[in-house]
Design a protein that fits this description.
Radius of gyration: 17 Å
Order of helices and strands: EEEHEHEHEEEHEHEH
Strand content: 25-35%
Helix content: 25-40%
Strand order of the largest sheet: 3-2-1-4-5
Number of domains: 2
Number of helices: 6
Length: 202
């Protein structure tokens, strides 16, 4: 199974190509804007590094959010386009799952919404979610202490309320690919998980 994994939902564009568990190529580029223009060239670069062609890909995995509204849309539309063009499956993976992957301890995933609050979800020691994803303020989270947080909002939250944290980590295309491979028989549809509306409405 040759999986191409994409994440454009955070402050980086992350692309990986895995042959089952083996990472053939990986590239990450930090950027808050311009994911749409950068993604396709990065995919081409990753395929070139791995000496593989687009037609070799047998599945696509993509971060479905929560995160940047535009970034989530860019990743999903690209993944669906590749899946449709090659007639291959597309697997959705949440950003919470990507951060929790491999931790093997009870943890609260905390992602910065960039609006003064946080996207959160709790996972148990086996890496399974034990709460629904939600949006919470620091005051909401302070009432739940003590807990240990991880994610791109964990350090900021710790400064606000004093929760324990472990190393800062952002969703990675490698983790996204491995999660998709592990549940290929029961995939999560590639539908966006926004948790809130876009900044701009008409």
């Amino acid at each position: 199974m040759l999986i191409l994994a994409l994440d454009t939902s955070s402050s980086a564009v992350s692309v990986a190509l895995l042959d089952e568990e083996k990472v053939l190529a990986y590239r990450e580029q930090i950027m808050d804007r311009g994911q749409g223009e950068a993604l396709v060239p990065i995919i081409a670069d990753v395929l070139d590094q791995a000496k593989r062609k687009t037609t070799d890909i047998t599945g696509v995995a993509v971060a479905i959010g929560p995160g940047s509204f535009t970034g989530v849309r860019v990743g999903l539309s690209t993944a669906r386009g590749i899946g449709l063009a090659l007639n291959i499956p597309v697997y959705g993976v949440t950003n919470f799952e990507a951060v929790a992957y491999g931790l093997l301890k009870p943890i609260k995933i905390v992602l910065d919404t960039k609006r003064g609050d946080y996207f959160t979800q709790d996972f148990d020691e086996s890496g399974c979610p034990i709460s629904n994803p939600k949006t919470q303020t620091s005051d909401d989270l302070k009432s739940l202490l003590p807990f240990t947080a991880i994610g791109d909002g964990a350090e900021k939250l710790s400064q606000e309320i004093g929760c324990n944290i472990i190393q800062k980590i952002s969703p990675s295309a490698v983790s996204i690919a491995k999660i998709a491979i592990s549940r290929s028989a029961h995939p999560l549809p590639p539908e966006p998980l926004y948790l809130r509306d876009a900044d701009v409405t008409i």
